[in-house]
Every structure is written in structure tokens, then in C-alpha cells.
């Protein structure tokens, strides 16, 4: 399952005999090795700089900061408050930010709930406004059609008297 590079790294760099070691032991050793190659300070820098992008859905932003946080080695006691603070400082929508800041004892779950609810409300409002605009366009189209139908003379009224006599004669 390992390519040549990883086989050499596990055998010689991690000093594990692939033939007799359990798969879990090999995977754990590889994870420790890779973790040692990363710089926690740079990972935390990425975490603290991550802002919600223009047009990015909240859940996509949440997934992104959770992925980055995995490499930041935050203590388990402060991980939730760090994540909550990252949401508050990174969320793009000003009204959502006000709603977050209005909560006296904001928790991580509370912040997530508020952000999702606000995003859903905005999406639903936009959908309703689009639907209202479509109904208004249809109504104005129908009003315009009925006005033009009233303004257009019927075929009987449009025909001059001589043509009307010819039409009657053919019937």
C-alpha cells in the first residue's frame, strides 16, 4: 500500500519493520512523523486569518476553520471558545455579527445556530422576493394583454362597412 518513498521512510526513518508491525502502529507513526513536519505557529496564523469569503456559505466556512483547527494543537478546554471567537471575528454578514454580539453568554453551538438561522432566513427572503417579482411581472403582463385586447378592435369592428357586407354575403 505504501509507495517507495513511504516504505523507506517507515523502515529507516521511523525504524518500523513493516512485515511485523500492525497497520494501526504504522499509521500512528506516520501521523506523528507528519505532525512533526508542520509548524503549529503557521497553522494558527492560518486559523486566525481565515475570514468568511464573499458568497461563501456559513457551513463551508465552518468546515474550513474546523479543518485548520485540527492542526493548531489547541487545548481541549479552549477549543470551543477559540472556534466560537473565530466565527464571531470571521463572519462576513454585519447583521449576523450584531446577532452574535447581542448574546451575553454565546456558546459555540449558539453561534453556529445563529449563523445558520440568519443565512437560511436571508436565502428564504431572497427566494420570496424573487417569487414576488415573478408574480408581479406575470400580473403586469396579463394587465397589458387585457388592455391591448380592449384597445384592439374586433374583426367585425375593424372591417369597413363594405367588407362587412361581403363577409355576410359569403356566409
Q: Could you describe the 3D structure shown?
A:
The protein is mainly alpha-helical. Helices cover 73% and strands 0% of the residues. The chain has 9 helices and no strands. α5 (79-90) runs parallel beside α7 (108-151) and α6 crosses α7 (108-151). The termini are far apart. The mean pLDDT is 82.
Shape: elongated
Q: What is the rounded Rg?
A: 34 Å
Could you give the order of the helices and strands? HHHHHHHHH
> Average pLDDT, to the nearest integer?
82
List descriptors.
0% strand; 171 residues; mainly alpha; single chain
Map the helices and strands.
Blueprint: H1 4-13, H2 23-37, H3 40-49, H4 58-69, H5 79-90, H6 94-101, H7 108-151, H8 155-158, H9 161-170
Short summary of the structure?
With 171 residues, the chain is mainly α.
Amino acid at each position: 500500500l505504501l509507495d517507495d518513498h513511504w516504505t523507506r521512510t517507515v523502515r529507516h526513518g521511523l525504524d518500523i519493520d513493516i512485515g511485523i508491525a500492525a497497520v494501526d502502529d504504522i499509521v500512528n507513526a506516520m501521523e506523528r512523523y507528519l505532525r512533526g513536519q508542520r509548524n503549529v505557529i503557521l497553522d494558527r496564523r492560518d486559523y486566525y486569518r481565515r475570514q468568511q469569503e464573499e458568497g461563501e456559505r456559513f457551513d463551508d466556512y465552518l468546515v474550513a476553520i474546523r479543518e485548520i483547527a485540527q492542526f493548531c494543537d489547541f487545548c481541549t478546554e479552549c477549543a470551543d471558545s477559540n472556534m466560537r471567537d473565530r466565527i464571531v471575528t470571521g463572519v462576513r454578514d454585519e447583521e449576523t455579527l450584531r446577532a452574535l454580539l447581542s448574546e451575553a453568554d454565546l456558546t459555540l453551538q449558539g453561534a453556529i445556530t445563529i449563523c445558520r438561522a440568519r443565512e437560511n432566513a436571508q436565502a428564504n427572503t431572497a427566494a420570496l422576493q424573487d417569487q414576488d417579482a415573478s408574480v408581479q411581472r406575470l400580473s403586469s403582463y396579463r394587465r397589458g394583454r387585457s388592455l391591448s385586447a380592449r384597445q384592439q378592435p374586433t374583426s367585425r369592428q375593424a372591417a369597413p362597412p363594405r367588407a362587412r357586407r361581403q363577409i355576410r354575403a359569403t356566409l
